[in-house]
Structure formats: structure tokens, C-alpha cells
Amino acid sequence: MLFRRSCTYNVEQSTRHYAKSSVTLCNLGVGATFGESILHDLPRDSTVVTKTTCELLRVEQQDFRLIWEKNKELMNDIITNCKIKNGFGPGVQPAAATSPTKRPLSPDHPNPALPITETPSPAMNRMGWALRTLLVVDNSSCLKDRKVSGKLIRKCAPGTELVDWLVNLAPIVHTRAQAAGMWQALLEEGVLTHVNKEQPFKDKCFLYRFRLDEEGGAPAAGIPQAEDLSAANEHIREALSALFQRGPDATLRMILRKPSHERTPEELELVFEELVHIAALSHLSTSIKRELSSIIVFEAHAQAGTILFNQGDEGRSWYILLKGSVDVVIHGKGTVATLKTGDDFGKLALINDAPRAATIVLKENNCHLLRVDKEHFNRILRDVEANTLRLQEHGKDVLVLERVAKQRGQHSAFKYTVMSGTPAKMLEHLLETRLGQSVSGMDPFLDDFLLTHIVFMPVVQLVDELANYFHCDAHEEAQTPEDREYIINFKKRVIQFMQKWVMAVRHAAFEEPSVCDFIEDLAAEVEADPDLNEETSIIHNVLTQMARYQEDRNQNAGQKWKLPTNGQPICLFSGNATPSKTVIRPDDDIIFRVYCADHTYCTLRFPMHTTAELIKACAADKLQLNRGPDDLCLVEVKSNGERSVFKDNDVSIPTGLTLNGRLFVSVKDHLDALTQLPEQECPTEGVDIDLEILSTKELAYHITIFEWDLFWAVHEYELLYHTFGRHHFGKITANLDVFLRRFNEVQYWIVTELVSTQSLSKRVGLVRKFIKLAAYCKEYQNLNAFFAIVMGLSNMAVTRLHQTWEKIPSKFRKIFQEFEALIDPSRNHRAYRVFVGKLQPPLIPFMPLLLKDMTFAHEGNKTSLDGLVNFEKMHMMAQTMRTIRFCRSRSLGLEPPSPKSEGEVRSYISSFRVIDNQRVLTAMSQKVEPTRKLN
Ligand code: CMP
């Protein structure tokens, strides 16, 4: 066995029949090994002839066998690959045995020995023809018929000799590498081929030949005539210069088609230098580009119309378009975008672990792509990939995504989250990435969408879009099994969406007739489609919930509410429902008074959703204000005389009034003439009882039960209506209004009780009782009442009662200080947030803070950014809305402290006697404890 050090050998093969005419099979260079047949005692199957002076390392048969015995595993490779590496041996097959047309271009494992075009371009064909012509007529040429493994190969030449010839021929070629690149340029278009299509062009002893000389080659492949020679000579300069230009790119493409372990350090350097110039990678660090150099793959597709991958497929690679263009096609939409040279695509499915969001179809012949496969993408790029991804349709941004860090317990390390988008595209993205079997782990996008879509996508539009998705097969006549599977998946996602929707917003979904109709249609379709068998139980469950809602609605139809003459509270006075947990509905009636400037009034009865405009018109008519609607307005006059005018399209007006506010209809120009009624300065209606005799714990218990029911009736959507303005939605916020009024009611009840208690000792007793009440409410996790009580005790009219506070035992004062610290608004209510963050449901949150968070998110962020919905804002709002859901996620199961005076306490706490005019309260406080005069 010999190892060559510095020499050139010809390896020649001769058979008995060709004893005198041996064929040079290949040229061996430095590093080659030969003579391995000694291992099996076989006769030498070729002759080795030195071409130059040689230095060899020789291993004797005996030693070779010994080494072999000890290192079989290591040497196996040398022995078996020895011949192949040297360009012949068992791997060498006659060209005809493997037809190039039968070997498809395999994008997964591109073979650098195969052409990247289906047929050579005319220009390359001509260059190849000119070179071949010159080679054939050159008598000393390397292009010879050679026998390989007993088979004659016509007009082939070893790579080394082709390089020699080209270096000699073309003065512009200075290095062997340049010449090799030029031959590779011919090889990648199929003008030149390796004899058995296994090697790209190498400056080695592998044998190559022209396509023209392959079996079935063009008839022109005969011996060139004189005129051919002169035409070739004429063309050759131009051909060489063109090939010279193409060489480096061809070499690079060849490297990029080799498996990573075959890329040499020099080749990796070449790739790296190329990657530096690719815009799609410009944001990546040098070290990442170096890592990419070894695994990035070149992929070429010859035919326009080729589908690179289909929407719904599993994502396996990320692509950069180097040459050509591709169409992005979406089911039911067609081509939504065309990507051009330099664009990248396919990241979404990899990062989101979701199916492909679109089909990619080649728009042109001969598209060139760079590809990074999923495993490498995840290892190298996933953590460092660009933070923002913009998807376009028809030249406009439709979805902007941002990479987010992993949430604990989430399936994938990183996901894209939606920053902004068009409503329809966000819905599409949601259906395709957040629903279906492939999705695991909780992700807030779906929930955010369900909680906030009413801001940017009205229910009717959402139902329309869902119906379109569900019926995406309506216009497709012939369906392949793959299409059918795809369509079924889409239908399944719509059903799952409906289930999640109903779970997230409950009865609010059923309040829209379009939703109910859609659910019924879906149920019918699901039942009729055997492919949707599994979805039957889901849609039936939705149907059951819908039926329950409708039944409840019918039972409670005709609920009536009253806003008593003396302000608050709203009370139910008829209807079938039990008073607890009664939701105020848009078409419930409410009876209320509307006054005019002279304090005469009319009593009206209207559904909750009636607009201010209608109330105004009706009141004006009843009160005989003979003015046109444009001259009039509906106004609230608060107990302190403040006025606030309603918009004509505002709804749920009576519930929106402040505690002791009154509704007026007024001529717009005479608003100044409106004064409050004398009764507004007096306490509201309520049970008069001696508080002292009521157990504090029992009070806290019943307050909590009562407020839990009010809180329970508030729908998360009401926070949105309240924040954006009810008039935008035409939706009532009556339940939220009542709950907020309750907060003020409790707060002012504390103050009213204290300033209207004349006896000092009774006041002291009351303060102690209220501090204890706050403590019990805190214990019951009714933080809304806790805040209201502590705020009431901190009201200026109470804090100034020094004689009272002086008599409060220090133990109570200390507790009160702790309570004050808890409601301290500084650092955005940090103390409260930390405290409440540790609580488990059920709990009643401090609602005004949730509303403040909503307002903060609303006022600090635009709803629309460059025509796209600012979904970050929706996410912020949904977080607050989810707090409500969390608080109510367990039902309230408090142990009643004692059943003794239940009825009495319950009726007392349900409507407190309240003065909400601060001036009056301060005056009363002054009266019970006049300000001490300083001597
Ligand atoms: P992915 O979902 O992995 O596969 C299809 C790719 O098409 C997708 O990633 C995006 O990179 C790309 N694409 C470009 N424009 C759009 C678009 N408007 N909608 C969806 N995908 C798009």
C-alpha cells in the first residue's frame, strides 16, 4: 500500500484484449493512496506509472494487514473509499447506467454533481461547444476514450488535465482554482458532467466529459470540421471571459450544495464572505454568520410553478431568495404577495412551531435559494433572529410580529407575538397558529383577541370572516385528499374557535343574533359531515350553552329597574328573577325622573339601551319644552351643582348618574340656569337603623355577599365600553355603573354616618366599628369595600374630627395606619398591587384601579398604528380584563357568621343613607366638632 508524497502518477487500466493500449484512468496527486488490493491478496487491477519524480510512503503487505486487524473500523473508510476517492473503483458506473433525468433534484440533499438547470442556457451551450471543439482538435489533448471498470467512456478527461489545459489556453486564468470554477460553471448547467454524476468539478483525477459526448448526445458531437474550428476560435475569447466571470459564483454554489462535513476551511471562508453581503442576514453577528457558513444550503429550482411548500405543511426550513421570485399564496385569497431577490420567508412556522401560513410557488424558472433547515435554525438563529417580522399582502403590511421570550411552561422556546395587524389577518394568523392539534401551551393571543375584538372587529364582521373560513371549499370543485384534509382542519379550527369564544365571553356571544345563527348553521354542517365527527360534541356543547342562555333570557324577560326619586340605589322591583346575581340587560326597563330648570319633572320608563337623544326628546315633549332637539341637551346635575352633558348617542344614562345626581333636560344655551334640587343635599333613601346593635362581622359578611353579586354581574366588555365610551359601541355599562356607584355609596356612607352622629362617644364607637369593618372586609377579600371604608375614614370631613380620633385606642389607630398604607396610591398603588398579587380567588378587586389601568392603556397608546390595529394595546387591556376573570374564577363560599339578624342587616347594607356633597359633609363635620380656636 502506498501513500503518495510528492509526485504525479497515472493509473492505467489494461485488459487482456487491450494489452498494448492501456487507458489512463486518472491522475493521482499528493495525499492519494493506492494498492489496497494487497489486503485480500488480489491481483493488481491497474498499472500505476509515475508521471514525475515521486516520493512515496510504502507499507508492506504484512504490516498493512497487522495494522488493518487492529484498526479495522478506522481503516474501513480508507479501504472502501480509496477507489471512489481516487475517481474509479466500484462506484464508477458507466454514465448511461444512471440517467441524470431519473435522478430528481432533491432539495433536501442537493447533489453538487448535478446541474441546477433543466437544460443548459444557449450561452453556456455555446461556450461548452467552443471549448470541446478546441479540445477535440488538439492532438495532445486530454480528452480521450478511456476504459473504466471494463466500460469504454468516450472522450473524457481527468479534472486535473482539464484545468491544465484551460490554464494554458487562457491568459486571464491565473490560478488552477479559477480554471476549476470555470469548469464548474459548465458543469452546473450540465454542459460538462462527471462521468457517473457523482462529483462536482474538482481539480483531481475524476473523469469528466462534455454532454455532447454522452450517449444520446447531439449529432453535432462528431469530429469538428474546419469551419467549426474557426467558429470556435472566434468565439473562444468571449466564452473564456464570460466563464471567468461565472466561475467564482459557480464555485460558491457548488460549496453550498455540499454537505457541511465536506466543506473545507477555505470553502467556509468563501461562504462566510458571501453571507456578509446578504441583506437578510445583515442583522446577525459575525460569529453567527460563521456558524451559518457550514450549514446553509444552496437550492435551485428550474421550473416556474414549482411548489416549494404548501400552506398547512410542517415548517422544515427557512429560505432566502437569491435569484428569481416566489408567490405567497393563501387559501381563499390567492396570491397575497410576491417576494423578490433578497427577501426571506418561512421563519414563522419554525419559530411558532405552527403550520406554514402560506403556500410558496416559484414565479420564475431557475430560482436560487439559500436554505437553513429547522434543526440548525433552532440551534443558531431562533434566539437571535430579528425581533420584528412584517408580513405584507398586496404591498401593504398586514401583520407585524415580534419575538417574545419563553413563558414558563410554554412549549416552544420562543414565539412570535402579534404587535399589530389588520383584523382579518390577525384572525387568520390566530386560526392557523393558535388552534388545532399542533398547538400546545397557553398563549394569550387567542384570549386577547376574544376579549378585545369588539374594539376593532365588530361581531358581525367576525362571524362573516369565520363563515368564509369554514366554507373555504365552497368554490373548489375537485379536491385532492391533501386539499380535503387541509379544508377539514380549517373547519375544525373554526369550531374550536367558537368553543373558546363562548368560554371567554360567555353570554355576550349569544346576545348577537348573527352569532346564534352561525352556531346553528355550524351545528347542522358538522352533523352532516362525517369528517367532522369529533367536533360534534364540541358544537353540541356550544349549542347547549346557547340554549341555556336563551332559556334564562326568556325567564328574565321584562326585568324592570327603578332609580328611586331620591337618587340611589338602582333597585329591582319586578320581574321573575331572584334579586341576587341579576344581570342588568340592555332591554330591561328602567324608571327614572327627568327634571327641567324649574325643577318640575316627568317620570319615564325606557329600556337601558335607550339613547340620550330619545330620552331628551321624550322628556322635552312631556315637560312641554317647545324647542327642537338640536337646541336641547340631556344633563346630569350633581349634588354639588356640577353639570355634565350627555352625548346624543350615549346609552344606559340613568345608571351612569352619580349617587345623588339628577337628570335634567335643558336648553343648550341655558345650562347655567340649572341648579340642584334641595333634596340632593340631603341623604339618599335608606334604612335608618342603630348601627351599634349590628354585628360588625355580619355587616362585613353581608356587604361582601351583596357586592360579590354586583361584581359578578359586571361583564369584562363593560370595562372596554367604559374606557372607549359607551357611545362607540351602543352598549350599556349598567352593571359596571351600579358596582362603581356602590363604591362611592360605601365611602360616603362612612362619612355621612360619622358626621351625622352628634355624640362623641358614639362617634368614637363608630370609628372603631368602621376600622373593624374594614379589617373584616379585607379578611373576606372584598377589597373594593375595604378601599371604600378606608377612603371614607380618610375623608377630610372625618380626619378633622380630632376629638374623636384622640379617643381612638392606639391599637386601632395603628391598624388604621396600616390600612392607609395599603391604599396609598403612590408608585401606582404598589402596596395594594403587591398585596392583591398574593391572594387567591374569590376576591372583589378595587375596581377604580382596574378602570384607571384601562384608561392608562387607552390614553397612552393609539388604537391604530399606520392603519393596523395596535394589538399591544389590546393585550394590555385584556390583561386587566383577565384580572376580573381571575377574581371570579372560584365562587364565593363564605361561612355566615350568625344567622340571627340576617334579614335586617341585608336590607340595611343594600341601600345606605348617603350624602355625597363634600361641602355639606364638611359643614356637618364642623357642626359636630367645631374647629378649635387658637388662643
Ligand atoms: P411560514 O408560515 O413559515 O411559511 C410561509 C411563509 O410565507 C411565512 O412563513 C412568511 O415568511 C411568508 N409570508 C410572506 N407574506 C405572508 C403573508 N401575507 N401571510 C403569510 N405568510 C407570508
Automatic annotation (TrEMBL):
Keywords: Guanine-nucleotide releasing factor. The keyword Acyltransferase does not apply. Residues 588-670 form the Ras-associating domain. Residues 695-931 form the Ras-GEF domain. Residues 91-111 are annotated as: Disordered. SUPFAM superfamilies: cAMP-binding domain-like, Ras GEF, Ubiquitin-like, Winged helix' DNA-binding domain. Residues 414-547 form the N-terminal Ras-GEF domain. One of its GO terms (molecular function) is guanyl-nucleotide exchange factor activity. GO terms for biological process: Ras protein signal transduction. Residues 137-212 form the DEP domain. Pfam families: cNMP_binding, DEP, RasGEF, RasGEF_N. Belongs to the RAPGEF2 family. This is Rap guanine nucleotide exchange factor 4 isoform X3. The lineage of its organism: Eukaryota, Metazoa, Ecdysozoa, Arthropoda, Hexapoda.
